[in-house]
Design goal:
- By secondary structure, this protein is α/β, with parallel strands linked by helices.
- The protein has two domains: about 90 residues, Rossmann fold (3-Layer(aba) Sandwich); about 120 residues, NAD(P)-binding Rossmann-like Domain (Rossmann fold, 3-Layer(aba) Sandwich), CATH 3.40.50.
- The protein contains ten helices and ten strands.
- It starts with a helix and ends with a helix.
- The structure holds NADPH dihydro-nicotinamide-adenine-dinucleotide phosphate (NDP).
- NADPH dihydro-nicotinamide-adenine-dinucleotide phosphate binds next to α10.
Length: about 260
């Protein structure tokens, strides 16, 4: 970061907007701020009250779109029910959309010619790559089809030549499909849905889930039973979560240098 500043006069800046009092969102925003501080990205936090109107929120986004010192804008989801998430995402300049949720960036990912990758799927791909796992030709199963995790995850695995199946709540036999996977990514939001008997011996299992139970945080994968069969598995916490933040930092630096 110091080199970027010294050589190009660029100091990456990230604006994080949070609306309301959701405790989990507050933790995520705090962790993002700490990561910025740790690596020398300037961060600005905009904590808005629960009763913020759509017009006020869009006006803030537009102000940040025009702010020179800000290169990345992130609006922490979910927003309170009265706000239109899609309209807010659409208002963020695609060049500052470090979450890669804007339709322009989603389209670019689809055709494989992108500036930013969505942080969580990008973090998963980085984990796969750094573990020396080759996706080419592998049976990849993604459980979950959300716009922010499941769908882009499937697309990134496809770009790396995986044979990809996407499961969701209407999938007829989840166990049977999961058992085929060489690489299984769970992004569901159902605590410990994926059990040991759903996983092929020697599979790579990546748990995106973050489910807050009264006494602990658990993933979408039942760790102990699945770890007995998997050749590699990510823990929760401490697996995909930190990678998501690392990719946000990467996207912010990229946005600053675009
Ligand atoms: P969504 O609720 O938006 O999507 C969940 C998906 O899971 C949907 O496609 C849904 O299917 C599917 N699903 C739900 N129940 C079942 C089931 N019983 N069997 C098969 N599929 C099912 O969640 P997100 O994608 O936003 O998040 C998923 C998980 O990942 C959550 O735990 C979230 O907290 C976590 N997360 C973690 C991040 C990180 O940094 N580690 C970042 C973002 C999310 P349908 O479409 O049919 O409804």
């Amino acid at each position: 970061m110091a080199k970027l500043k010294a050589e190009k006069g660029i100091e990456p800046g990230l604006a994080v907007i949070i609306v309301g009092e959701d405790p989990a969102s507050k933790i995520y925003v705090r962790n993002k701020k700490l990561a910025c501080e740790a690596i020398g990205i300037r961060s600005e936090e905009y904590a808005l009250p629960e009763n913020t109107t759509q017009e006020e929120l869009i006006a803030l986004v537009e102000e940040l779109n025009n702010k020179k010192e800000i290169h990345g804008i992130l609006c922490q989801l979910p927003l309170p029910k009265h706000l239109d998430e899609e309209a807010v995402i659409n208002a963020i300049s695609p060049k500052k959309d470090v979450d890669a949720f804007h339709p322009v960036n989603v389209g670019k990912i689809m055709i494989g010619n992108f500036d930013f990758l969505p942080c969580t799927p990008a973090g998963v791909m980085e984990l796969i790559k750094e573990s020396g796992i080759d996706v080419k030709g592998k049976e990849c199963v993604v459980v979950g089809r959300s716009n922010i995790v499941g769908k882009p995850m499937a697309m990134l695995l496809l770009h790396q030549h995986g044979t990809v199946t996407v499961c969701h709540s209407k999938t007829r036999d989840l166990k049977e499909v999961c058992q085929r996977a060489d690489i299984l990514v769970a992004a569901v939001g159902v605590p410990e849905l994926i059990k040991g008997d759903m996983v092929k011996e020697g599979a790579v299992v990546i748990d995106v889930g973050m489910n807050r139970l009264p006494d602990k945080l658990v993933g979408d994968v039942e760790f102990d039973s699945v770890a007995e069969r998997a050749c590699a598995i990510t823990p929760v916490p401490g697996g995909v979560g930190p990678m998501t933040i690392a990719m946000l930092m990467k996207n912010t630096v990229k946005a600053a240098t675009l």
